[in-house]
Structure formats: structure tokens, C-alpha cells
Design a protein that fits this description.
The chain is an alpha/beta fold. It has eleven helices and twelve strands. A seven-stranded parallel β-sheet has the order 8-7-6-9-10-11-12, with helices on both faces. It has a five-stranded parallel β-sheet with strand order 2-1-3-4-5. β11, α10 and β12 form a beta-alpha-beta unit. α4 packs across α6. 38% of the residues are buried.
């Protein structure tokens, strides 16, 4: 079985070489494209990342191709219709970091609520004055979770662990899930904003969620609330966020994402060799929010743990093993 892994980053190589000895894949640093596909005409299984393009033309140049294992949740870089016509199985990594991102969201939430950064800065200067460092408890407070996907669900579980009352806004309601985890759905976003002491965003970004928190509804946020965003920067209108902070509506914010970031399909692009890190650096350096004492910003790093990285690679390996065993898993297909 001829197996190729494309767009392999240095952090992937060690894991793949150690854990894929049984199929001995060839690890290629370059992305797969129409220009180089002919060099790999003998490929039977390929694994790609979002930077590679697996088009109809690429598949034509790989006549023996039987399976595509993408190391990503998204799969819009693969022509699913062409794959279906050729009987090629396509598998993805449906999720890998629900606890990882949720844990980072709570790290930001706690850092703002307990003024961790200000305390650290002061102590580093051997100043042990407590003035201005009074924080707030989480226990007994209301946590508003926007978006009840895998990450939102895990955030709700963590909130319950802190003794918080958890409410959630999502366009889809699963009352069995709400009962199992222990949270309450609200009917609209305004209600969540009005009731929440802490707000954490876990919604996808699209045309419907662009600026879902904006100059109109930010005024409805419960005074003194803390906002955390580990999803996508453009879910929150920056002007509205700054206005809410300046007017005391929000007492603080923890942000892992900023409006104006380069378009990112998958978080893993950030640690790949192709990501424009200078562009991200310039964005953060020029961002007015970074100068505020009531805002903590991390560099889109919520996904980045050793365990999460290994999960995405392990799931890819498992997908290939399942296919070779005759029981493909995590299969994605073209919408009819």
C-alpha cells in the first residue's frame, strides 16, 4: 500500500515516523497540488492538510487513489463529488480539542476575574500591595455559553464544576443534552447577555454570526460582566467591545482571537511553516485593546496543547487503520 502524507510540519514528523511504521508512509513537506500530483501517481492513500488542494484534476493524476485522510475538521479543500464518483473514501478529524479550547477559555476567564496578570506584574516588582487586585468569585455566578457545539458543551461542564449556573444560546436546542450536562437554553441572545456574569463565545464564524455582539446589543450586557472569546475575532465588533469596556458595561475581557486576523480555516495553520506570523504580530502590536489593563490577549493559542496535537494525528492514523480494516470511520460525503 503506497501512502503519502503531504504538507507535513516538523511537529508532525516525529509522531508519524514513530506511530505509522506499519504502513511506512512517505512524508512530504510540500502541499499537494495540480502541479506536483503527477509525481505521486502511485499513491493509494494520501493524507493532506487544508493547504493542499485535492481537486478532480489531482485525482485524475492519481489513478490508484483509494482513500484521502485529511488532518483537519474542514474538508472544503477536497472535491467530494469527484471522490465519490471514483469510489474514493474521504475521512476527516471531526473534533480534537473541545476540552483544550474550553480549558483555555476558563484560563482567560479566571485570569481576568482574579486579576492574575496584574498580580503577577506587581509581584515581579516585589510590590505586595493588594490595592486594586480584588477579584470576583465564579461560584454562584451565571455563565453564558454562546454556541453549544463540542467546545461549548465542555465549557458548560467546567462551569458546573465551579458551581456556576450555566445558560446557553444556540440556534439548535437539545433538551436531553441540557438535562444531562446541566444547563438551560435561553430563547435569544439578548436574554443571555442580560443574565450572564461571564460570557464565553464558542460559535462558528459565518455571515450570520458576523458581529453577533455589536454596538446595538452590547448595551444589553449585564453591567460588570466579563467576556471571553476563543472562537473567531469577528464574532465581536471591536468598536462595541472597546465602548463596553470604557463605559463599565464589561469589567474585563479575555481574548484569544482578534477581529482582523488573517483568515484561518484550521487552527493548525498557525503553527505551520506557511502561516504569516509577521502579519499576526503586526496586528497584535497595533491593536488598541492590548494596551488596556482590563483585557488579556493570547495569540490564538487556545488549541495548542501537546495532547490536542497528538489527538489530531492519532485520529488520522485511526482513520487509515479503519479503512485498511474494511470499516472506514469519520467518513465525509458530498451533500446531495
Amino acid at each position: 500500500m503506497k501512502v503519502y502524507f503531504f504538507n507535513v510540519a516538523p511537529w508532525e514528523r516525529e509522531f508519524l515516523e514513530k506511530n505509522l511504521k506499519d504502513i511506512s508512509p512517505e512524508l512530504v513537506e510540500d502541499k499537494l497540488s495540480d502541479e506536483n500530483a503527477g509525481k505521486y501517481a502511485d499513491a493509494e492513500i494520501i493524507s493532506v492538510f487544508v493547504g493542499s488542494s485535492v481537486s478532480r484534476d489531482v485525482m485524475d493524476k492519481m489513478p490508484n487513489l483509494k482513500m484521502i485522510a485529511t488532518r483537519s475538521t474542514g474538508f472544503d479543500h477536497i472535491d467530494l463529488e469527484a471522490a465519490a464518483e471514483r469510489g474514493i473514501v474521504v475521512s476527516n478529524v471531526p473534533y480534537y480539542g473541545e476540552n483544550t479550547v474550553a480549558e483555555h477559555a476558563f484560563a482567560l476567564l479566571l485570569a481576568v476575574a482574579r486579576k492574575i496578570f496584574q498580580s503577577y506584574e506587581r509581584t515581579e516588582k516585589f510590590d505586595f500591595d493588594y490595592t486594586g487586585l480584588t477579584g470576583v468569585d465564579l461560584k454562584g455566578k451565571t455563565l453564558g455559553v454562546i454556541g453549544m457545539g463540542h467546545i461549548g458543551q465542555y465549557s458548560a461542564r467546567i462551569g458546573n464544576g465551579f458551581g456556576m449556573k450555566v445558560i446557553a444560546y444556540d440556534i439548535y436546542h437539545n433538551e436531553e443534552l441540557a438535562k444531562e450536562i446541566g444547563f438551560e437554553y435561553v430563547e435569544n441572545l439578548d436574554e443571555l447577555l442580560e443574565r450572564s456574569d461571564f460570557i464565553t463565545l464558542h460559535a462558528p464564524y459565518n455571515e450570520h454570526t458576523h458581529h453577533m455582539i455589536n454596538m446595538e446589543n452590547v448595551k444589553k450586557i449585564k453591567r460588570g460582566a466579563i467576556l471571553v472569546n476563543t472562537a473567531r475575532g469577528a464574532l465581536v465588533e471591536t468598536e462595541a467591545l472597546i465602548w463596553a469596556l470604557e463605559n463599565g458595561i464589561l469589567s474585563g475581557a479575555g481574548l484569544d482571537v482578534l477581529e482582523g486576523e488573517p483568515e484561518i480555516k484550521e487552527e493548525w495553520e498557525i503553527i505551520s511553516k506557511d502561516f504569516d506570523k509577521e502579519q499576526m504580530k503586526t496586528l497584535i502590536m497595533n491593536h488598541v485593546l492590548i494596551e488596556r489593563d482590563d483585557v488579556i490577549i493570547t495569540p490564538h493559542n487556545a488549541f495548542n496543547t501537546k495532547e490536542a496535537i497528538e489527538r489530531i494525528l492519532q485520529t488520522t492514523k485511526d482513520n487509515i487503520d479503519a479503512y485498511l480494516g474494511g470499516n472506514p470511520q469519520n467518513v465525509v460525503k458530498a451533500k446531495k
